[in-house]
Amino acid sequence: MNDVRTAVLRKLAKHGYWGNRHTAFENLHKGFPSHFGNEVKKTATKLIKENFLIPKPTSYGLHVSLNPRMKEIIEKIIGTAEGQNSETKK
Question: H helices within the chain, ranges in order?
Fold first, then answer.
């Protein structure tokens, strides 16, 4: 679960979806294995409740972006996960 959380945050940060730049909620599962689809959506919903993601309702569906006020915490989460990944590759 934490891995999915980190992966969602990393994906949005990598593409620069901070603040006013947003993407469709329905696109968050793209790039993940198909069996993770529901877990990605559940995780994203939790990230909205935790204020890591900002929801933006539009006439054509829900969009989300990373909360710039949480940038420092998000970068720590992403950085910590990257540090763990590099250690396990050695």
Answer: 2-14, 37-49, 71-89
Dihedral angle over CA of 37, 40, 41, 42, nearest 10? 120
Domains in the chain: boundaries: 4-71
Q: If we measure between CA atoms, which residue out of 51, 58, 25, 53 comes closest to residue 40?
A: 25
C-alpha 77/C-alpha 47 separation (Å) is 13
Spell out the CATH class of 4-71.
Answer: mainly alpha
Q: pLDDT tens digits for 16-72?
A: 999 999 999 999 999 999 999 899 999 999 999 999 999 999 999 999 999 999 999
Distance CA 11, CA 35 (A): 18
